[in-house]
Design a protein that fits this description.
Radius of gyration: 20 Å
Number of domains: 2
Shape: globular
Distance between the termini: 42 Å
Strand order of the largest sheet: 11-8-5-6-7-14
Largest sheet: 6 strands, mixed
Number of strands: 14
Structural class: alpha/beta
Order of helices and strands: EEHHHHHHEHEHEEEHEEEHEHEEE
């Protein structure tokens, strides 16, 4: 069926889905009234970890809690391993409950999603496969949570809906944008500008097929302290300058090692993007970049070109859209990136115009 969410805008937001009730369903009633962001964001997972800190043997409950949790799955203490599995199960059940509400589309939940029409609920009702990516599900939690979500859906009559963890995890957006590099003979420089981290990689092609991603070190995102939009020209310019500096420095780093790069640099960003322009009404930290030009990706290309003395082209995509390109051609599918917030994307019906992927793309660190 036709996707009524296209082009993706904040109307597609997964984070804003609110569970008011799922009449007759077997789910945790404590989830009533909460949004998907309340339940499965990084902040939500961290709250679950804090609630189980004693059994997880995490007395200093601070720092990167999801990463600390990952170590608990292999702890020598069976109590700790059991507690970690319990957190994963609980997290997965939350995700499954959200998907159940979407699949059923009960009137009580439709009533609070004012920006959706019947077609939007019908589209989600047609989804049969959900791929998970993002940092929160890249470790041991991912498969356990996906299974718990799938089991909850099956227990409530939807055994035809599968939730799976992508083998590419947090690399989904950079792998997706890499499929957009057009040349057969050049490597491609790709980025994912998230709310917490900036991921960087070089895409390597053999015979036109994307075979390898060489990951460079992650960088702290400039917008980490600005989860919501700061709609000032000063902020937008400062943020854009920092993005241009990162890209130009990364290009210099890579070409300094002899790589031959395509002039197109492809990047995903944690905000909705339409033809290279961040959504001007969005509330994310990257949305104010729309203040700088009518087409921000061209503005950014000029900034980078001025710094590098090269002719540069930019392709800028929404992170969820970029992640979905990995599964282009798979019908009735949604892709969720679980991190600071939840990104959503829907694979295009065809992979035409995208670089073919090797049967299994190798991802390695530089």
């Amino acid at each position: 069926m036709t996707n009524p969410f296209l082009p993706l805008t904040k109307r597609a937001s997964f984070n804003a889905i609110r569970i008011m009730d799922i009449p007759g369903a077997d789910f945790d009633p404590a989830l009533r009234g909460q949004t998907a962001h309340d339940l499965v964001s990084a902040r939500a997972l961290s709250a679950l970890i804090r609630a189980n800190a004693e059994r997880l043997r995490l007395p200093a409950v601070k720092g990167d809690l999801p990463r600390l949790l990952d170590a608990c799955f292999e702890a020598p203490d069976p109590v700790v391993r059991t507690a970690a599995a319990g957190v994963a199960h609980r997290y997965g059940q939350r995700l499954g409950t959200i998907l159940l509400a979407l699949r059923r589309g009960d009137p009580v939940n439709r009533a609070v999603r004012k920006d959706w029409e019947a077609a939007h609920w019908q589209f989600w009702g047609s989804i049969r496969q959900v791929w998970l990516g993002g940092g929160l599900v890249s470790g041991a939690l991912g498969p356990l949570a996906a299974q718990a979500a799938t089991d909850l859906l099956a227990a409530n009559g939807f055994s035809d809906m599968a939730v799976r963890v992508s083998p590419y995890g947090a690399a989904l957006p950079i792998l997706g944008v890499a499929r957009c590099i057009p040349s057969r003979n050049h490597a491609g420089l790709v980025f994912d500008f998230g709310q917490s981290f900036i991921k960087r990689a070089v895409a390597v092609f053999q015979g036109g097929v994307l075979t390898n991603l060489v990951r460079l070190s992650d960088l702290q995102a400039t917008c980490e302290d600005h989860e919501e939009a700061d709609w000032s020209q000063t902020y937008a310019q400062r943020l854009s300058n920092s993005i241009a500096v990162v890209i130009a420095a990364t290009r210099a780093e890579v070409t300094g090692h002899g790589a031959r790069l395509h002039p197109l640099i492809a990047a995903s960003m944690a905000c909705y993007v339409d033809h290279g322009q961040p959504e001007p009404q969005g509330q994310g930290c990257y949305n104010p970049l729309a203040l700088l030009a009518d087409c921000y990706q061209d503005f950014l290309a000029a900034q980078i070109g001025a710094r590098t003395g090269t002719t540069t082209q930019m392709l800028l995509l929404h992170d969820g859209t970029a992640a979905s390109l990995v599964y282009a051609g798979q019908p009735a599918t949604a892709v969720l990136s679980l991190g600071t917030a939840v990104g959503v994307g829907f694979p295009p019906p065809s992979a035409e115009g995208l670089r073919p992927l090797a049967e299994r793309v190798t991802i390695r660190n530089a």
